[in-house]
Each structure stands twice: as C-alpha cells, then as structure tokens.
C-alpha cells in the first residue's frame, strides 16, 4: 500500500501517519494484557505537505490540527491497523465533504390548499367538542 486513499483526488502517503500501539482494554487474560494490539493512528493536518490550502483550512476548521482514529476490537494488531486506517480515511473524507447549498423552495398551491383545509377540519372538530347545547 503506497498511501491512504481518502477521496478520488487525495491520497496521503503512509509516512505522514504516526502510529501508537497499546494494550487493549477489557477482559482477555494473558494475551490481551501483554500484547500491544490496540492501534491508534494520528495525522497532523497542519504540517502535511500533501494537503492543498483549501483542504487544510477545511480540515483545521472542522477536525482540528491533529486527526486521530483508533481500533482495539480485533485480537491482531494487523487487523486493528486496517480498521484504524479505514476510520481515519472516513473521518478525513467527512471533514473534506462540501455540504450542498440549500435551495429554498415554496410549497405548491395545492399543498397550501390541503394544509388550510386540514386546519379547517381540525378547527371544526374542536369546536364540536365544546359543551354548548345545540339549539333547534
């Protein structure tokens, strides 16, 4: 693997990622207590030469100067590394996503008429509930 594919246009070289390995929490006996299988990967957004100025600014404002992801569910360190990389790629992709601009719309005339008719029906139903005696 030459790099971490984040989007179609962005691939981060693996040498820009920093790894930390610790023991996983929870039960497991001798293996879990002694093996450093929990993987944490860190990506320094501020000092990355791979990112463009817009990408860097967007990630800094949304995710901060350092983005981290960790995994400790699997028993093997290799599997936890894969999961942590996938989580990091997902966080970076979400941070880089540009939200679509909202296009304001108006309700159609038929929708407005339906709404008013429903309000009239509801009003009539509530008026019938009042304890006024009917006059003949």
SSE layout and pairings?
Layout: E1 3-5, E2 11-13, E3 17-22, H1 29-34, E4 38-44, H2 53-63, E5 66-71, H3 77-96, H4 109-129
Antiparallel strand pairs: 1-2, 3-4, 4-5
Can you describe what's shown?
- This protein is of the alpha+beta class and about 140 residues long.
- It has a domain of about 90 residues: Double Stranded RNA Binding Domain, CATH 3.30.160.
- The chain contains four helices and five strands; from the N terminus they run E-E-E-H-E-H-E-H-H.
- The strands form two sheets. The protein has a three-stranded antiparallel β-sheet.
- Strand 1 and strand 2 form a beta hairpin.
- Helix 2 packs across helix 3.
- The longest helix is centred in the last third of the chain and has 21 residues.
- It is elongated, with a radius of gyration of 28 Å.
- The N and C termini lie far apart (about 90 Å).
Stated plainly, the CATH topology of the domain at 3-96 is called Double Stranded RNA Binding Domain
Q: In DSSP terms, counting alpha (H) and pi (I) runs of 4 or more, how many helices?
A: 4
Q: Secondary-structure element sequence?
A: EEEHEHEHH
User: Which ranges are low-confidence, i.e. pLDDT below 50, for 5 or more consecutive residues?
Assistant: none
Secondary structure: helix percent: 40-55%
Shape: elongated
Overall average residue pLDDT: 89
Task: Note the beta-strand portion.
Answer: 15-25%
**Tell me about the biggest sheet?**
3 strands, antiparallel
- Structural category: alpha+beta
Count every beta strand, where a strand is a DSSP E run of 2 or more residues: 5
- The gyration radius over C-alpha positions equals 28 Å
The CATH class of the domain at 3-96 is identified as Alpha Beta
Provide the CATH architecture of the domain at 3-96.
Answer: 2-Layer Sandwich
Q: State the strand order across the main sheet.
A: 3-4-5
């Amino acid at each position: 693997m030459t790099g971490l594919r984040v989007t179609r246009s962005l691939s981060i070289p693996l040498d820009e990622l920093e790894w930390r390995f610790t023991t996983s929490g929870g039960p497991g006996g001798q293996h879990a207590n002694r093996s450093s299988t929990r993987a944490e990967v860190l990506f320094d957004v501020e000092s990355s030469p791979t990112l463009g100025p817009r990408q860097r600014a967007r990630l800094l404002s949304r995710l901060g100067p350092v983005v981290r992801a960790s995994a400790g569910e699997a028993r093997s360190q290799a599997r936890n590394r894969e999961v942590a990389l996938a989580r990091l790629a997902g966080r970076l992709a979400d941070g880089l996503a540009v939200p679509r601009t909202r296009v304001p719309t108006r309700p159609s005339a038929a929708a407005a008429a339906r709404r008013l008719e429903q309000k009239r029906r509801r009003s009539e139903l509530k008026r019938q509930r009042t304890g006024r005696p009917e006059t003949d």
